[in-house]
Amino acid sequence: MEPINSLFAGIAALNAFGLVATRLTLRRASGLFTDAAGRALAMLPDMRPVRDAGRFLAAWLRAPLRVAAVAPSGRALSRLMTAELSGSTGPVVELGPGTGSFTRAMIANGVRQADIALIEYGPEFSALLAERFPHAQIRCMDAANLGTVDLFAGRLFGAVVSGLPLLSMPRRQVVAILKGCFERLEPEGALYQFTYGPRCPVPKSMLDRLGLEAERIGGTLANIPPAAVYRIRRRRQETHGAGSA
Ligand SMILES: C[S@@+](CC[C@H](N)C(=O)[O-])C[C@H]1O[C@@H](n2cnc3c(N)ncnc32)[C@H](O)[C@@H]1O
């Protein structure tokens, strides 16, 4: 071989060797990086609450009247709203679940996903709920139309949990929602409703007209903003005379 050709062959061999070595080093480095990134991600705190807060704020900016809160309900309010629910409550309907704060709390109390129907008007939330609660029923609809759907093959509801912004809804819509719920609630069933206001968000005159009564069952300052929870039920007959307390 000519000396000049030998020189080129040597350079080519060195280049090939360098390329292979560089590739191996990069592959090893990227493997180490992926492992380290995976370990670091596993050590990070659960980012779901942060992402939910972002989603909620974005939804509120798009539809402030419908969403009516800048952040999802916190744990204390979720526990209060679902404190009386358990695996033996029967079918539960949740109105306006948003990102699912109350849904998670009722599941933690033993309510099965198959016994839950989520009625959410916002498409951004109903798609998320379908991912999160694949065994629950999700309906993307106005809660005022509840009376038009058969959710549990004719079974009555054991309870209704409502995160709806009743104070920003027209009276007619609130009446339709309450009628839709109480037509399908078991005789002893209740609707749980929270409010940021100082009194029950269903006015007394409306409760009277529908034969309902409301009782404040608790409140929490550990929520943004602080909130109170009301239990709304059919009015009980007052008993007079012998036997009554
Ligand atoms: C105040 S947010 C409460 C969300 C969630 N329950 C929470 O506490 O974090 C009100 C929710 O009700 C939904 N909503 C408002 N009007 C509705 C309607 N007519 N029917 C069904 N959902 C409605 C909104 O899209 C939103 O998810």
TrEMBL record:
Domain Methyltransferase residue range list: 92-189
Domain of life the protein comes from: Bacteria
InterPro entries recorded: Methyltransf_25, SAM-dependent_MTases_sf
Ranges that cross the membrane: none
Gene3D superfamilies for the chain: Vaccinia Virus protein VP39
The protein's name in its UniProt record: Phospholipid N-methyltransferase
Organism: Aureimonas altamirensis DSM 21988
